Amino acid sequence: MSINGKAYIAGVYEHPTRKAVDKSLAQLHAESALGALADAGLTKDDVDGYFCAGDAPGLGPLSLVDYMGLNLKHMDATETGGSSYVLHVGHAAEAIAMGKCSVALITLAGRPRAEGMATGTAPRNYGSSAPDVAFEFPFGPTVVNMYAMCAQRHMYEYGTTSEQLAWIKVAASHHAQYNEHAMLRNVVTVEEVVNSPMISDPLHRLDCCVISDGGGAIIVTSPEIAKSLKRPLVKVLGAGEAPKHQMGGKIDLTYSGARWSGPLAFEEARVKPSDMKYASIYDSFTITVLMQLEDLGFCEKGEGGKFVSDGNLISGTGKLPFNTDGGGLCNNHPANRGGLTKVIEAVRQLRGEAHPNVQVPNCDLALAHGTGGSLGTRHGSATVIMERE
Amino acid sequence: MTEQKRVFPTPVADPDTEQFWSAARDNKLMIGSCNSCGEKHYYPRGMCPHCGSSNVELVQSSGKGEIYSWSVLRRAEPPFAIAYVTLDEGPTMMTNIIDCDLDNLKIGQRVEVQFSATEEENGAPVPTFKPV
């Protein structure tokens, strides 16, 4: 059994806030939900399936279901960090294909800026009952130094350079200049990236994503409901998910779980990487993008540096336009989780609703991919492939 | 840039790992070893992550190995070097490189374990490494 063609993305909404001092976390989730429902032409009473992850306040989905007054037949609070919402699109399509629900709502929201969270440079302790904590937390693993170790090893094995990584940020900044909501709208150069302050060798400040408040929501529906609405039809063709971990100490930092989630999604969608007109690629750091592009099969392992260079990711000039909203590197990274906004921009591209200066002509096939957790320790990868019908 | 002393959080032992931390107090670095498949693993745990057997035990590592990857978090106070070190016995483990020149670390560099005290009085020390 396959989800290919069994579900459609009927509504998306990206919350415009980037600093939400005046809004509660639940409120951001609810405003995002209402935005996506309005985009689809549905109301909250149509929702019978709800998906959320660890950013949702309260016990799993329950507090937000209560806050929004939802009546449901299906719930799923699978938590894989920032990739959760890409994974939820696949899970929602499965639930719809099985007849468990017909209008699935996925929400994300967070306010790390309003809360003054040291997102990238302070160790996160997921609780001492996690079996890895005693063996890692004392050594100060943060988001940035763990991804930095991946970059360091990639450079060692494949000769990848800081200049090549910088091209990823350069491409994102070219796109962000057209996004009125983006936090960083200035176009930057390779030199500016590699001359920005070193945060954790070899990652510079401009190799890192922004820290932003905000949120977003996605509505996934059955084909019947999608076709009854007045929005362009965006069909879910395939989805894949996979965890990657430390393999009992056989650690290899040169690849991500995209090596497994990508082929699962491509197989289900019956398409290949070279068919993609656009790709939303999780961009917590420049190295994240480079490794995932290789693992998804857009280029050979170790060739990512060459692939991203010379503007190859810039819409209009490059072969693979990516993150045309500016992505996490320039636009936003709500709740320090960038998966949901990856799906949103892919849907905009497929609908022809991206900014005219970054819209990919005749964009009929697109991919969204997320990584959640840490590339340097353990993470969940999720890939979704969508088609405009 | 030379490395300043940093304060290490004290690890919390659980029934799965008490023996590991007890050996650490004697400056012994232990790793998991499977009596069914013969593979070593790290971090140590109650089942073999390679074959699934629960017939596992702790064995002492030589404490010698090489840097698999590293990064100096320049924004920390004080800056410090996190690393993965591949032990001569095979497994790769997260650690810090101490007593080193933070501007001169290299992948492949030989290192050996040196336990570092942690912040709580009578807390178990943690296995850090220094260049040989």
Tell me the major beta sheet of chain B.
Answer: 5 strands, antiparallel
What is the rounded distance between the termini of chain B? Answer: 19 Å
Helix share of residues of chain A? 25-40%
What is the total number of structural domains of chain A? 2
User: What proportion strand of chain A?
Assistant: 15-25%
Mean pLDDT of chain A: 96
Figure out the total of helices of chain A.
Answer: 13
Top keywords for this entry?
heterodimer; A: 389 residues; alpha/beta; nine-stranded mixed β-sheet; two-stranded antiparallel sheet; B: mainly beta; five-stranded antiparallel β-sheet; 1 helix
Structure description:
Chain A is built from 13 helices and 11 strands. With 389 residues, chain A is an alpha/beta fold. A 9-stranded mixed sheet of chain A has the order 3-2-4-7-1-8-11-10-9, with helices on both faces. Chain A has a two-stranded antiparallel sheet with strand order 5-6. The longest helix of chain A has 16 residues, at 25-40. Chain A is globular, with a radius of gyration of 19 Å. Chain B has one helix at residues 18-24; strands at 30-34, 40-41, 56-60, 64-73, 80-87, 92-97, 110-116, 126-131. In chain B, strand 5 and strand 6 (92-97) form a beta hairpin. Helix content of chain B is 5%, strand content 37%. By secondary structure, chain B is mainly beta. Chain B has one domain: OB fold (Dihydrolipoamide Acetyltransferase, E2P) (Beta Barrel). A 5-stranded antiparallel sheet of chain B has the order 6-5-4-7-8, with no helix packed on it. Chain B is built from 1 helix and 8 strands. Classes of the chains: A alpha/beta (389), B mainly beta (132).
